[in-house]
Every structure is written in structure tokens, then in C-alpha cells.
Amino acid sequence: MNPVRALRHAVSRLVNRDTAETQPPEIMKALSRRSRRLGIEGINVLFSFDCDTPEDAAAAKDVFAQLRRRAVPAAFAVPGTMLQLAAEQYRELSRLEAGFINHGYRPHTEHRDGRYHAITFYDQMSPDDVTRDIREGHDAVTAVIGRRPVGFRGPHFGSFQKPEQRRVVYDAVHDLGYAFCSDTLPGSAYESGPLFEVGRSLKELPLTGSLRDPFVILDSWNYLADRTNYRLQEEYGTRFAETIDFFAERRLPVLLNYYADPAHVVGDAIFLRAIDHALSAGARFRSFEEILELTGGR
Asked: Computed from CA positions of residues 253, 297, 148, 194, in that sequence, does the dihedral angle turn out positive or negative?
């Protein structure tokens, strides 16, 4: 759940450049060039799910079943507290070969005034408390899922993007032996590539925007029509399809990285049509592990 304002602020330096390279088609072509340099061929899509509320646990099972029927892999980022509350449900997903990454430990939302509100912002915590939350999240995934996570995404990560803040995260996850983080904003992908090294063999896989609005993450929260009784806007499906079609029609290779909250998209025809459209256009959905293997040491 990342406020659009925070996303735009983080990339204002890029947006304000007076050059044709800031136009959406040119930005996406640059993303393709950076993808090609990594050895990426064709359209490759990472899809993961942030599970920040109790409702996400039940929804995750249904969403995963729909994706599994389409041979689409999915990873789940679940705060440790939520994992413990719905341990058996998430263990079952793991047995079905769902992936899990560390999403910290503390709860990321609280329910009040009839809906969920975001809590636990790393920029409001001390570096020691951030490190502790990451380590406790790691322990929770290991205990509940039965295997160590090798990737991390922070809570409400749009507010924790300064270089010194990223270093706190990278130092903590490196000490845990992780292979990657996936919690930087789309501007990072356009500047540095859809996968890049941040030091000591640790990789960052930034999230991606859409063709029409490249600097805003194409996630379910930003495109909800109803934030109380969750329902996606039609615009979500349109922007997803337009972005896929841009690369397919030009035969451009690309790595796109998207996520949604299960409770936002469960049973939602707009979401499933977006996935089906990508598949029909020849996109291949990949796991984090597959992408790391494909790109090797690049």
C-alpha cells in the first residue's frame, strides 16, 4: 500500500528532466534495453502478493489456485504476525510450491473506522528496530513455512527509499544470507535495470509501473475502485494489457515486476483477464528464483 504521492516524489528527479527520454514509450524502451543486457529474452513477468491483513490468508488460497491452473508461479510476502495467525493456511500454500519472502514481522495494518489503515513504517523506526523487524520476520517465515527465505520486501516501502535507508535494509538481509530484495520504486528499474547488484552479491529487483504511468507501481492498491469492499478499477486491466502489448507488438524483451494484495483481487474478473491477456500475448511468468538463475552473474 504505497501512496501515489510518495512514489512520485521519489522519482521527481527523473520526471523533471527536459528530455524525450522521460516520455513513457522511451522509458519502456530503456527498460527493455536494460533487460536485454541481463540476458532476458521475451516478456518475463514476476508476480507476487503482499498479505498484510487477516483476509489475505483465505484469499491467497483461491488466488493461488487460479494462477496454478494457468501455470503461473506466485510468491507471497507475509508479515510474521500474519504468518503466525494463519500458519496452516500458508503452510498449505507452501506445500503446493508457492514461494515466500520475508516481509518483516510487525503487523502492517490495523482495522478501524470500517477499513484497514497502514501502520509500521520503517522511516518512523530506528535502524536497530528496522533490523530487528527484518530478523524477526526471517525467523517467522523459517518457523512457519519450514524453510529459510532468500528474499525481502519491506512494509510500505515507498517511504524508505533514501540511500542510507536502503543500506540499513541491505546490510540486514545480507547478514541473513539473502539473494535479493524487491522493494524499490519503478524509477530504479529505469535507471539501473530491472535487476541490479547493490553490493556483496545482493540483488535488487525493483517494482514496475505501466506504459501510461511508468513511475507509479501497477499494484492493486493504487487501482482499487472501492477501498472498503475491495474491487479493482477497469483501468488496472487496461494498463496491464497496454504495457504487455507495447513489448509484444515490438518484440522487445523485458522483465516486469508486479504485485497485488490477495484480498483485493480474489475472484476479480479484471485481474484474471489481465493475467490471461499477458499469457495470450506470449508473456512468461517467472519465480524470483528463475529470474536469478536466468540472469546469472550479470
From this structure: negative
Instruction: Assign 114 a pLDDT band (cuts: 50, 70, 90).
Output: confident
Looking at the DSSP assignment, which residues form a beta bridge with residue 109? 118
Please give the radius of gyration of the chain, using alpha carbons only, rounded to the nearest integer. Answer: 18
Distance CA(104)–CA(80), nearest Å, equals 6
Q: How far apart are CA 220 and CA 232, in angstroms?
A: 7
Amino acid (one-letter) located at 126 = S
148-179 core/surface letters (b: 16 or more CB in 10 A; e: else)? ebbbbbbbbbbbbbeeebbebbbebbeebebe
Residue with cell 501455470: 71
Phi, psi at 226, each rounded to 5°: -145, 115
The reported pLDDT for the residue numbered 298 is 53
In the chain, pLDDT over 70 holds for what percent of residues? 92
Distance CA 86, CA 197 (A): 34
User: Which alpha helices (H) appear in 109-161, and where do they start and end?
Assistant: 127-145
pLDDT digits 0-9 by tens, 249-289: 999 999 999 999 999 999 999 999 999 999 999 999 999 99
What is the spatial distance between Cα 130 and Cα 122, in angstroms, rounded to a whole number? 6
CA 117, CA 1: separation in Å to the nearest integer? Answer: 9
Question: 89 with 57: CB under 8 angstroms?
Answer: yes
Q: What angle do CA 44, 49, 54 make, to 5 degrees?
A: 170
Q: CB atoms < 10 A from the CB of 136, how many?
A: 16
